[in-house]
Automatic annotation (TrEMBL):
Binds 2 magnesium ions per subunit. This is DNA polymerase IV. The record marks Y16 as: Substrate discrimination. The keyword Metal-binding applies. Belongs to the DNA polymerase type-Y family. Mg(2+) binds at D11, D105. PROSITE patterns: UMUC. Keywords: Cytoplasm, DNA damage, DNA repair, DNA replication, DNA-binding, DNA-directed DNA polymerase, Magnesium, Metal-binding, Mutator protein, Nucleotidyltransferase, Transferase. Residues 7-187 form the UmuC domain. The active site is at E106.
Amino acid sequence: MDKIRKIIHVDMDAFYASVEQMDNPELNGKPVAVGGNRERGVVAAASYEARKFGVRSAMSSKIASLRCPGLVFVKPRFDRYKELSYRIRDIFYEYTDLVEPLSLDEAFLDVTVNKVNNPYATKIAREIRSRIKSEIGLNASAGISYNKFLAKIASDLNKPNGQAVITPDQATDFLERLPIERFFGIGKVTAEKMKKLGIHTGWDLKQYSLDFLSRRFGKSGLHYYEIVRGIHLSEVNPNRDRKSISVENTFERDLFSPRELLAVLEKLTQELFRRMERNELRGRTVTLKLKYKDFSVQTRSKSLSRYLENEEIILFSKDLLEQDPLKMPIRLMGIGISNLDIDEDRNGKQLRFEGFFSE
């Protein structure tokens, strides 16, 4: 008998909006819409405070502002979202190499066999969420089950900042009660067709034979027949394309003293070395990132034609910090290594890695 898989689906809570609230404390507790403005455009994401007024992603900004007069519109900063997304994925990779990102704010993890030798997927999910909160500053929800479809459904059950598990014993009853439009692969058009046949829930769908579903829905009939029975064999497919490794720190208070900044830089480089060693990677380019008090960001880089030794990374980092006088106090510092030495046939399997400072 095949071993039951343990799949975790991690979904960041209101990711874009939460990042904006984290980076700008003045937005905390306020209804925030990322994207658009009061007159035109489309909402890319909405904070939970805005969702209480019915504001949703893909909604017209004008309609959103009518529903929520106090709505605060902010411009999206996709480079920032990518940066944090890749840092979150770095946490995932400490538990398993079987990570399948679906977007910047969600991913599947197969922890059936994992790097921390923890047999309990629920405990791994809880630990990952705790680390995302402590190391990144954001809330995440998680779903745990024996296949990807159920794990994704479960991650939505206790949002925000919660998790849920659907065990094999619970799956049958859960799927029979699930509204038909919540099933993976059943869109609005198909859901309407099914409802005309009297199919409103999983239990309704389960009453129809494979032959009937195949005649009505073609090749998709087999998928509908299997998924309502909890059969979803799609594996977690890692597709990593890392171009850099980095680490950063947002300070409790803005720093301007060279002595304090050098002390922070030393700690950051040591953490960078640990991540490089863990991933068995070297690089040719060092990048220093500085975020100033006014939230403006500056990056400084230095490269060699060969791979850098750790001592050289330390020297280059200090040179970059002292390269130009600081224009104002610093609220965040980051250090990264890029132009990596990637073994494309590691363990007999081609891997692609995602980075922080570049796309």
